[in-house]
Structure formats: structure tokens, C-alpha cells
Design brief:
alpha/beta, 234 residues
């Protein structure tokens, strides 16, 4: 059995992939075999090998062992819109069974699986599934990536409340400085530490790969402390 964690975000475009890749590198630097997963991705490019998504490719590059593309990203859609719309445009539908099977394969070959979500907590994946179904079905604790910009105090609190209300465990949160010019960032971080019902597991400078890995020691410790989980099977 391995450990898995789900990376959620306060919104789309707030750096879930950047943080997921930094966490993978930090876990590997700590001696763990860690692999990334992007169950659902829209905005994929057509290649001779099929549709490929930049976020999924980044996760693969940060992983060891390196997963094959289809296992890392079971559902890949071309149009860069909400997954339920991108899937419908390809006459497809996101289902949990292939995702659970792919996660089980990854968990069998690694000590940690970092599963990156899509969009925010309630992004639609299909007519019957929202993004929150991923950690619920797989039984994963959640790390929330908070994009540090104006509005983050509200977005972070709403996301944390929704995660807990949906019966998921909030392992902690990571601040990602998506707006380098954010006014009173330290004051906002202090407010987040006071208001959110889980510990801060690190604060990273957006796109600063060299420093991000070192900033996630607390996140690595939190993942290491998780009990091994049996992979969910459909």
C-alpha cells in the first residue's frame, strides 16, 4: 500500500500543477518514490501519440517512477474549457472506474501518488460528476493550493468549508504567490493561518522551481505521516 494525496485549488489557474510538481520533487528528495496523476485534463494538444496535456506532461517529468501517459491522464480532452463541455465536444464522458483503475496501478508502483485536481473544488467533470468526486471516490486527503492574490481570503475559506462539508480530510494548505505584487501579502498569510481549519504546509514563489521544493518540507512531513492507503478499485 502507498500514500496518496489530492491537490485541490481555490480556482483554476492558481498553480496546482506547479505546486504538485514541486511536492513531487520534494518527496523524491526525501527518498520517496513519488508519481503524479492528472485524472482529467482539458486543453490538450494533438500529437502523433494522441492528445497530450502540458500539466500531465509536467507531472510525468517530475515523477519517479515515470508513468505512461494514459495512466497519468486517463481522460484527455482537446478544447480548453470546463471538462464536462470538452468531453461532450468529443462525445465522451468522464467516469470514475478508469480513474480508480489508473490510480491503483500508480499506487502499486510508488510510495506516494500526488493526484492533481482540475479547476476548483466543484468544477463539473460530467453531467453527474464534480471535481470533488475524485478525492471522495479515491478516499484521499486534500491539500488546498491557495492562489495568493486579492480575493484569496474568501476563496480559501469557501473551498476549505466545502472540502470538509463533503466529508474529505483537509491535510493542510499551501500558499502560491501567483501575484508577486499582492498588497500586504504577509498580513493576508497571517489571516489565512488564523481562519483556515488546517495548517499551512508551505508558501511558494510562483514559478520559482528552485525555491519551491525547499519550501515544502512541512508538506513532505504531512504526507509521510499519512497511514498507507489501500487503493480504491471500481
Amino acid at each position: 500500500m502507498s500514500r496518496s494525496v489530492f491537490i485541490a485549488g481555490t480556482d483554476t489557474g492558481i498553480g496546482k500543477t506547479f505546486v504538485s510538481c514541486a511536492l513531487l520533487r520534494a518527496l523524491r528528495a526525501d527518498g520517496l518514490r513519488a508519481v503524479g496523476m492528472k485524472p482529467v485534463a482539458s486543453g490538450c494538444e494533438a500529437t502523433p501519440d494522441g492528445l497530450r496535456n502540458d500539466d500531465a506532461l509536467a507531472l510525468i517529468a517530475a515523477s519517479d517512477p515515470s508513468p505512461d501517459y494514459a495512466t497519468c491522464n486517463p481522460f484527455a480532452f482537446a478544447e480548453a474549457v470546463s471538462p464536462h463541455l470538452a468531453a461532450a465536444a468529443m462525445h465522451a464522458e468522464v467516469e470514475m472506474a478508469p480513474i480508480a483503475a489508473a490510480h491503483a496501478r500508480l499506487a502499486a508502483g510508488a510510495e506516494v501518488v500526488v493526484v492533481e485536481g482540475v479547476g476548483g473544488w466543484l468544477a463539473p467533470l460530467s453531467p453527474t460528476l464534480l471535481a470533488n468526486a475524485l478525492p471522495q471516490a479515491l478516499g484521499l486527503p486534500v491539500i488546498l493550493v491557495v492562489g495568493l492574490r486579492l480575493g484569496c481570503l474568501n476563496h480559501a475559506q469557501l473551498s476549505a468549508r466545502a472540502i470538509l462539508a463533503d466529508g474529505c480530510s483537509l491535510l493542510g494548505w499551501i500558499g502560491n504567490a501567483v501575484d508577486p505584487a499582492m498588497d500586504r501579502r504577509e498580513d493576508n498569510l497571517a489571516t489565512l493561518r488564523r481562519l483556515l481549519p488546517a495548517p499551512c504546509l508551505g508558501v511558494v514563489e510562483h514559478a520559482a522551481e528552485a525555491t519551491a521544493t525547499a519550501a515544502l518540507a512541512a508538506a513532505v512531513a504531512a504526507v509521510r505521516a499519512l497511514p498507507p492507503q489501500a487503493a480504491a478499485r471500481a
